[in-house]
Specification:
With about 675 residues, the chain is an alpha/beta fold. It contains 22 helices and 14 strands. It is about 40% helix and about 10% strand. β13 and β14 form a beta hairpin. The chain is globular and about 80 Å long.
Amino acid sequence: PAYHGPELEQEIEEILELQTLLKDNPELQADIEAEIEDIYTPFLDQLTDVAGLPGSVLRIMNLMDMAGYVIAYHLKAQYQRPRPHVQDYRVEPSIPVPTHSAYPSAHAVQTHLIAHGLAEVYEGPTGMVAEMFDVAERVSVNREIAGMHYPTDTEAGRMIAQVVFPMLRVMFDEVFVDAVAEANAGRFDNCKYSIAQTHAPKINPPDNGGDDTVSPKDTLSETLKHLGLEQVEKDAGKGVSVMLVDKAVDVDHPALEHKERPDGINLDYPVPAQSAFAMGSMGTGHGTAMAGLITGLMPSPTGDTQIGVAPGAFLQPMRAQNLARDNPIDRALLAGALLDAVLGARILEGRAETEPSSQMRVLVLSLDFQRPAGQGLDPLEQASLYVDVGAYLAEKDEDKRAQMVAAADGFIDPLVLVIAVLQQIVSVVIAGGNNGYPQPAYPGAPKDYRQLAQALEHEVTRKLVREQMLGLLDESGAFEFTDAQKDEVMTFLASVRCSLKDVLSDDQTDPFAKTGLIVVGAADYSDPGNRYPAKPTRYSNTGAGITLVAPGDGDDPKPLPQTCQEALARRTTIPTAEIAGPGGYASDADALLSSSEELYGFGGTSAASALTAGAVARIWSEAMDSSPSQVRATLLSDDYTREIPDEGGLRALFFKATTTGGAD
């Protein structure tokens, strides 16, 4: 930390600006005073229902709190940083000042550890995890407003929590297992013991005529059969690497053992490096389920079960659950990581003396990312996070234009900018969202790309976009890009102008037609009475931008079940890889494979995007010299999709009988 000099002066000025928020704001002061001793209530306000939280979850909060206290106070004694008011008399503490030093912020360590602990326990939507980290950030920044801490105290606390949590997770393993079990307990968990239970999944012995290169139809999951597949070649997707940006993935899962074990990229917990334990999770089975649908092959003594569309593809998971919130810093970090991963893979492939066994061709974004809402972490920032391109172009005063750029967190949303560039290199598959909205979820809606498309239409704003892109490349952590490589990226960026032009119009039924963007909705394939081959679900987002639909879980409009018999009748989910233990989706806590008859099983547009990503990998495997837009066009051909009657031309993933998907 800075003890003197310009860096300290800048931090003092930031604190003084934050303290202006206390003027005529007794509610904020009351929160700050309450948070001196109570950092639990802000979290409980987000989680507690009428029954309260399970006791084991409260134990997790208490353990993270106490661990953070011990760690922070040990480090405070090492750094001995004076409090802000000691360094500058203009800082007026609004609460009593503790006698210990400032760096790091103990409140930041403790609250962020609590957020990490709750994120490990709850499988729910990414939005709920985002709320936990937002609470941690709000409590931490409140200490800056109170004059207790410098911004770098808070930043250090945040980083310490991220580094130490995987170790605490191991230390308190039994407590976490109990918490996951209690938090995920459902009313119908014991239905499997009732006389109404008739849905036990069956695995038939394979009959492949002695050919071990294919998975015959009687070993395919119900989902793959619904897609029209008669068999799946075990090398389908061979030579293609698929990057899955999602939650935790059990990289040692039996369904993934038929392939080379990936190290994975862990943005949530980069320390310890390449740790399989840190990549996985007891409470979050979403990423593992996604991986299974892309490339999974579940072994069994009575016969393998084929659950993945492209078992020959190489899976590269990127754990990024904690970066999916509406936060400009997290969004920029994720954008930079995607640049490193995709462009870095391209560089390494070019350097290889021999042809690599797989080449990155598919990027899957299946988290429920939070769309930028105009307010970031900075309590003083109430306007849009990014520049309004239309307003910028309308403003002719250069000084005011400069002020608009300086006041924003970036000219263009960096995640959208990076996706727009990468879709020129790889196919980008995005889950369409499960809210039933008439537009896809972020970052899959045409409106998410309009600011960028508009900026690329004018030279003055094109220049700013290029500068922002070069800045992202220069900030890369994994690779030092050469001038030639930067020039190549600028060429891709120039091509984005043409490929995204259609998003500027509201009249386009497929505004991403010229791109490599594939936005996927969910459909119900389970009912033979449905309009062939599928029926779009009510929960799936719709509208311009949705490229196609693929299998999601059922769409039963009936009231919630009241008995086990009613619950068992509702089961229409997507069978896939399952994590062991009480987390995840299977009703059987010991199952490593969920069935198509789970009450609360896997599905939604996440499952649909995973299945589509597998199909895209198969297409690439047969035509590695194609462009992402060509692969997209092939996907929408009759070989891989069929038009759904009376749905305005919407197509559903469905394999033509002659489509095999193996590598040549």
